[in-house]
Design a protein that fits this description.
Largest sheet: 6 strands, mixed
Organism: Dietzia aurantiaca
Shape: globular
Keywords: Cytoplasm, GTP-binding, Initiation factor, Nucleotide-binding, Protein biosynthesis
Number of helices: 11
Number of strands: 29
Radius of gyration: 26 Å
Family: Belongs to the TRAFAC class translation factor GTPase superfamily. Classic translation factor GTPase family. IF-2 subfamily.
Distance between the termini: 13 Å
GO molecular function, one term: translation initiation factor activity
Bound molecules: guanosine-5'-diphosphate
Protein name: Translation initiation factor IF-2
Length: about 525
């Protein structure tokens, strides 16, 4: 399905797997990434210096064939989480590092949850086996409890014992990654199209301005391309690879530092090539406005059943995280929820559960996997609520099981209701204002594009920001007559269901049309 809008089978070429290293703090993620980098990027041949650009590629021989792998070089899963939260799938394979002298720890479990929620295959690196206290078999046993059964025990997860410190078995680990990728994924992309990618990291560099490390996902990015990434835009002025060398183009799975954006984009933002600078700027401005408006709206809104619906519309799978005051109720609730009879099209998945308050860790996972959190007789602790508001995560509180069941069931059924999407009608600029005692403010407008339509839904844009949503055009006149529609290039007089309108404001109209189900 990934290949659909990339042309036909013949247009697709094999691309390297993109790998993220995750695991508990101090288990050796940084050391492992360094070790792979220095062993494989070849510091000597590149003149002794490798750049830290947030990702790198290495080549390793597997079954007599040179295979390339891309590593995201930001240890931990913050970047991964940020990207998942924005819906960008940036990783093909997760390497979960577990220290053999320590064992499975909370962040190990979190990493497993993240990877499993994203349906990313896992390779387990059992690290620090140089230590006397290392117990690699114990780690295998522990991981089995999380559904990661080692191949040698008849499962399908590859475990490799390594020492990141001594550079031991790094080649075997790379081989395991390649074999896992080959076994479970069809990694291909069309290099002959406008590039699309994801920003792994971005910052403001004193000399070079905004710099973003971008992982190309499809197409080829070239110097000179007009680009938009989140609400930042610009033109690719320079691209630099992990050796510090300038490159003129970057193909799928290639990480490059991109210089030329006019502002700093966010980690996880999608980068896209567009036809011209002007378009890039317009898209970026629009996103900027939407973002500010969405944030404002989010902090206002009460979470409703409709919000639950929207989770379903996008995924047809409702991910849940259940937190409760004791393990008995959590279990009961999960069982009851799993017992809801639902249509084949819809899936309910409990991706995590636990006893105690809703924590930031829960919210983090929910954001990453578009999950809804259920708090049963518990509340959110400290910053978790704030974070949930910021990330747009729904936390729903219950103290009666059947209420929880009823609501979730209603939401799942609601899934089959029609889906509406917005269709733009047009934009008009307010050029004059008249007061009328009968109808309030009348706006004298010029229709800039599309049409204005009586009774249409509208929003008000001021200085590029949406200042009011869900207005209606309550009356519309062309010269002295009532009109149902007024077209682009004509003046009109209109009233809207909102009183604070000003000269220079833009009225954008739209309608909701039913989206066909596929
Ligand atoms: P991170 O927090 O997961 O990135 O962990 P680090 O890579 O910073 O490693 C934490 C500590 O463990 C450091 O002191 C490393 O030197 C040490 N360490 C990492 N890998 C190994 C290993 O294979 N063997 C031993 N003995 N120590 C290691």
């Amino acid at each position: 399905s990934f290949g659909e809008d990339e042309g036909g089978e013949d247009d697709l070429e094999r691309r390297p797997p993109v790998v993220t290293v995750m695991g508990h703090v101090d288990h050796g993620k940084t050391r492992l990434l360094d070790s792979i980098r220095s062993a494989k990027v070849g510091e000597a041949e590149a003149g002794g210096i490798t750049q830290h650009i947030g990702a790198y590629q290495v080549t390793s021989e597997v079954d007599g064939v040179d295979r390339t792998l891309t590593f995201i070089d930001t240890p931990g899963h913050e970047a991964f989480t940020a990207m998942r939260a924005r819906g960008a799938k940036s990783t093909d394979i997760a390497v979960i590092v577990v220290a053999a002298d320590d064992g499975v720890m909370p962040q190990t479990v979190e990493a497993i949850n993240h990877a499993q929620a994203a349906e990313v295959p896992i390779v387990v690196a059992v690290n620090k086996i140089d230590k006397e206290s290392a117990q690699p078999d114990k780690i295998r046993g522990q991981m089995t409890e999380y559904g990661l059964v080692p191949e040698e025990y008849g499962g399908d997860t590859m475990f490799v014992d390594i020492s990141a410190k001594q550079g031991l078995n790094i080649d075997s680990l790379l081989e395991a990654i390649v074999l896992t990728a080959d076994a479970s994924l069809d990694l291909r992309a069309n290099p002959d199209m406008d590039a699309q990618g994801v920003a792994i990291e971005a910052h403001l560099d004193r000399g070079r301005g905004p710099v973003a490390t971008v992982l190309i996902q499809r197409g080829t990015l070239r110097v000179g391309d007009s680009i938009v990434a989140g609400d930042a835009y610009g033109r690719v002025r320079r691209m630099v690879d992990e050796h510090g060398d300038d490159v003129t183009e970057a193909s799928p799975s290639r990480p490059v530092q991109v210089i030329g954006l006019t502002s700093v984009c966010g980690a996880g933002d999608t980068l896209m090539v567009v036809e011209e600078d002007r378009t890039a700027r317009q898209i970026a401005d629009r996103r900027n406005a939407r973002k500010r408006n969405a944030l404002a709206a989010r902090s206002r809104r009460r979470i409703s059943l409709e919000d639950l619906d929207s989770h379903l519309k996008e995924t047809s799978q409702l991910n849940l995280i259940i937190k409760g005051d004791n393990s008995g109720t959590v279990e009961a609730l999960e069982e009851a929820l799993m017992g809801i009879e639902i249509d084949d099209e819809v899936q309910l998945r409990v991706i995590d559960r636990g006893v105690g308050a809703v924590t930031e860790t829960n919210v983090n996972l929910a954001a990453a996997s578009d999950a809804v959190i259920i708090g049963f007789n518990v509340r959110a602790e400290g910053k978790a609520t704030e974070m949930a508001n910021r990330e747009g995560v729904d936390i729903r509180y219950y103290s009666i099981i059947y209420q929880a069941i009823d609501e979730i069931e209603a939401a799942l059924k609601g899934m089959l209701k029609p889906i509406y999407e917005e269709k733009q009608l047009g934009q008009a600029e307010i050029r004059q204002l008249f007061r009328s005692s009968k109808v309030g403010n009348i706006a004298g407008c010029m229709v800039l594009d599309g049409i204005m339509r009586r009774n249409a839904k509208a929003r008000l844009i001021r200085d590029g920001n949406v200042v009011q949503e869900e207005m209606t055009i309550t009356s519309l006149r062309r010269e002295k007559d009532d009109a149902t529609e007024v077209r682009e290039g004509f003046e009109c007089g209109l009233t809207v269901s909102y009183s604070d309108i000003r000269i220079g404001d833009i009225i954008e109209t739209y309608e909701l049309v039913e989206k066909p189900r596929d």
